[in-house]
Amino acid sequence: MKLSRLIWTTAATVLLSSACTKKDNQSAITNQGSGGDPAFIAVNSTAPETNTIQFLDEGRQPLVGAKILIGYDANDPFNGNELVTDTSGLVNIPSDWKAALPVTVVSAGNVRTTYDSVPPTTTTLQVSAAEGEGNLEVKGNTTDFGNLPRDGMVDFGLVIPGFTQKKLLHFDISAVVSPSVDTIRVAGQKLEIPSNLTLPSQTESYIIPIKLNKPRYRTYVRQEGQHKFFALHGKFPFKKVIDDVRGGKSVFEVVNHFEFLSGGMTEVGVNKSGGRADMSVAPVGFNSSIAVKAPQYPADKSLLSLAMAEIDGMLVPTDLKRLLPNQSLNLKTSSAAAAAHVLHVLTNSQNLAGESPRMAVMSADLMTPMDAEAEIASGDEGIRILAGGSLAPGAVFNQLSFVLQSAQDSAAPVFLDMIAPPQIEPNVVKMQAPQAPAGILPVATYLVLSEVEELASGKVKSERRTRLWEVFTSNWVDAVRLPSFTLNRLPNRKYRWEVMYLGRSADASGAGNSPGTGVDLLEGITHVTRNAADF
Hints:
With 535 residues, this protein is mainly β. It contains four helices and 34 strands. It has two domains: 3-33 and 132-534, no CATH class; 41-126, Carboxypeptidase-like, regulatory domain (Immunoglobulin-like, Sandwich), CATH 2.60.40.
C-alpha cells in the first residue's frame, strides 16, 4: 500500500476522535464571561420590566427590531400575536396570551429560534448567532516540537478550535477534518493532507527512510472576531500502526496507538481577510492522568473516551482511547487545566460512511523509494491521504450517545439509549424519547434544522452545516408541533433535522445554576443521545 496514504489515513483517527468530542457532560461546565454559550431559556438574566419578555443575542445584548411570533402562525391562536422588540429588546406580554405557547424569534444575523411552551410571564430569552456564509482562513506554522529523534514515532501537529459546551453539540466535522488540503511530496509522490494537520521535520523508516516536513496549517472559521485555537502535539509508532492497518484493523483499534504529549491555546483575531498566527504546541504538558472504566455494552457498538481539559475557558481534548467492554485504563490530562472531564462517546462500530470501519487504504501499493524531501506544493492535486468516504459525516455522526464525567468520577458511565431518527411530517417532528436511567434527570429536548453542503478539496470529503432553526422544549417529548415556516430549499443542498435529548446526572454539582447568573438549561447537562434525519 502507499505508505503515505497509510500515515495520513491513520492520522485521520485523531481528527475523527476530536470530531466525536461532540457532546455531553457529567460534570457541569460553566459559561465564563459575557461571551459564553447563549441560554436557551435564561430566566432573569438581567431582570426585564414587569409584564415583558426580553430577547438577547449571543453576546447578551438586547435584540433590537427582532420579529416575535407567539403561537403557530399570524393571528393563531389570537390576534396581534406578531410583535417587534424595542431598543431594549423588550416586548409587552399581550393580554390575550393566556397559556403556554411557542415563542419564535427571527432577527438578522441570528439563528431562527423557537422556545416551545413558554408561559406568559416575565422572562428573558436568548438566541444563537448564525454562521457566516463563507469560510475565513486562519493560517500559520505550528512550532516548538523540540528535537525529534529518529525513534520510530511519527510526530504530528493538529490545529483545532477550542470548544464550548454548546459548540460541541453543534460540532461540524469540517472544523476538525479540514475540507481543504495541502499537497506535499514524499518520495516523489504527491499526497493530499488535511490543511490543519502539520508535520515537524523528521525522518523515520518503514522499509525505506521517509523524510517528512509540513510546518504550515490552514483552518477556517465562519465569523469575524476573536477565535481560540488549540494546537496539539501527538505521535504514533510508525511501523506498528502501518502493520495494524495493513492487517485490517479498524480505525477504533488503531486509535489506541496514538499518544498526545502537549498543546497550546492561541487567540487569533479574524477579519474579512482571515487571520494569521504561529501556534506553539508546547505550553501545556499532558502530565497527569485520569482513571476511566468502560461499562458492559453491545458488541456492535464502540466506545471512545476523550480526556477534555478546560484551558483558557475552552474545552480541548488531551487524550483519546477506545475502551472495550468493562476495560479500565488511564487517559492523559494536564495539571494546568482549570478542570478535567472525560467525554465518553458510544457509537455504532460500522458507521464509517457506510463502509467497513477499516481505513480505506487496503488496496494501495507501497511507494517507490526516492530521495525527495517532503515539501509543500500548494494548489497541486494528487494522491488522497483520506479515502473518499472514510471520514465522511453521515451515519457516523447521526446516532450517538454521550456522557461527560468529572475526572474525579471513575465509575463506568451510564448511557442514555440510542434513539431512532426523527420522523418529519408537515409542521410536526416526531421522536421516540428514551427511558431515563436511574439517577439521570430529563432536562430538555433540543431540535436543530440545518442546511448541509458537501465539501471537497481534491478527494477529501467533508460537510458544512448551517443552522437554520433551533427548537427547544423543556423535558423529553415525543413530538413537537412547529410554527409556520417556509423553507427555501436549494437544489445542491440537503437538509437535516437533528434531535437531542438532554439529561443531567442527579449527582451533578449544578455549576452555572447559581442565583443571579441566569438559568441556562445547557449548563450542567451530563447526558445526550442524538440522531438525525436528512430530507
